[in-house]
Write a structure and sequence with these properties.
Elements lengths: L23 H12 L1 H16 L6 H22 L5 H9 L2 H23 L1 H9 L14 H23 L1 H27 L22 H9 L1 H4 L7 H4 L7 H30 L14 H10 L1 H35 L6 H4 L10 H17 L6 H29 L18 H20 L3 H4 L7 H19 L15 H9 L1
Helix pairs in contact: 1-8, 1-12, 1-14, 2-9, 2-12, 2-14, 3-12, 3-18, 4-5, 4-17, 5-7, 5-14, 5-16, 5-17, 5-20, 6-7, 6-14, 7-8, 7-14, 7-16, 8-12, 8-14, 12-13, 13-14, 14-16, 17-18, 17-20
Subcellular location: Membrane
Protein name: Amino acid permease
Keywords: Membrane, Transmembrane, Transmembrane helix, Transport
Amino acid sequence: MSTSNDHGLSEFGYRQSLDRSIGKFASFAAGVSYISILTGTFQLFYFGFGTGGPAYWWSWPMVFVGQIAVALCFAELAARYPVAGSVYNWSKRLAGPTTSWLAGWMMFTASVVTLAGVVLAYQVTLPQLWSGFQLVGDGSGAHDFGISAVIWGAVLILFTTLVNAFGVKLMARINSIGVFIELIAAVLLVVILAVNVVRGPGVFVDTHGLGEGHVGGYAGVFLVAAIASAYVMYGFDTASSLGEETVNPRRTAPVAILRAVIASFVIGGLILLFAIMAAPDLSDPRLGTSSGGLQLIVLQVLGGPLGKVFLGCIVVAITVCALAVHTAGIRLMFAMARDNALPFGVRLARINAKTGTPVVPAILIGAVAVAILLVNIGTPQIFTAVTSVAVVMIYLAYLLVTVPMLVKRLRGGWSGRDAGGHFSLGRLGLPVNVVAVLWGAGMAVNLAWPREQIYGGGALRWMALIFIGIVAAIGLAWFRLRGRHRLGTLPEHQADRGDQLVDELS
């Protein structure tokens, strides 16, 4: 281990240029806020329930089993490679330059699309707090909902851009406070819903007859509804993406990743469980609409004033979720630019002397996310379409880590134990890795499948495949023709030779 003050960063050829000030709770908060229990469950409950009925709840534990396998693999990687831009740098050490570059490119693009998807959640919640938050029309017009959502989304993106530009300390402080509020609100919500249940657990085998006439019966419907759960439990790698800004990252990041996933599964699952059991009327058609959903159940069960207090907490959760997503995207862009793996790498990797953070990526990511919102402003399925594309790209980026990791295990190139005594799966590594790969591949295909319920009719059905195909093709064309010939750590980010020698001797 390094004895220098860079926490072993020089081992990977980099010098410490980011502000290392994130502690254990802030690291955990980064992973939790990206997953964001309240944001995800409240944003897409209407879709899951409206598509699959009460029985859609079983998609929650299904997604958890798959994602915890991925998280366990990532925890091992976080202990060994505590470097910014987690997925990109992990893949770089497991596979060739083209694979690792594509992993970073897909994850970066997914982060931008995810930011655009997360900020849309303001529109799902704010008008239910006060009708004046419906900025366009009364919400009944064909495009009232979507246009208002884009305006609110742009406002939130402006906020996350400014916070990230001012530095990681401000971001971590706001994020930690927001996560603390979110966790307290989520636990209280579980308790209040639990004491107001009006039906037994038998409701979770009720499909509302939604599988009738559908290809594949209810199983086909269930796979569509699963997007509501799949959208929540990802982004846990953010805790490691901030590794260069975390104190003792080799020990802190792996624990933060696993705690984030497990806490989200338990609390989020209980919210959904008791909400369905406490809903006054499960046949209410508003539960399956974006203007009703889980927010409506909370207002009905808790009553107006108290219900709106919890909706206010959801707004806080959405805010810090967007902040965490934006932060993760910035670190990934910085990590790739530092290796000169992106156009204009010198500018993108430049650290502001006053704020200690990359400012140009913060502004660029915010601007592109707003552009994505504007392009989709007339799409009726704007919520599900944008979020589905984001989830598919995340799953593909994760596969570009878990597949090379599995190949390395099978070839005997991955040691079962970490020499530093840090987190390791040992003999469980191989079966867990296999589950992670099979799960990721299966869900990527499921979510990208051209379904009208998710993407709309006509050419929009192919939105995910077309968008992802274009992004991958353009990126790979640039990398193969030009980018790969320029790879190499920029001189201003290279570790001092003295620090490297310390690591080699340790």
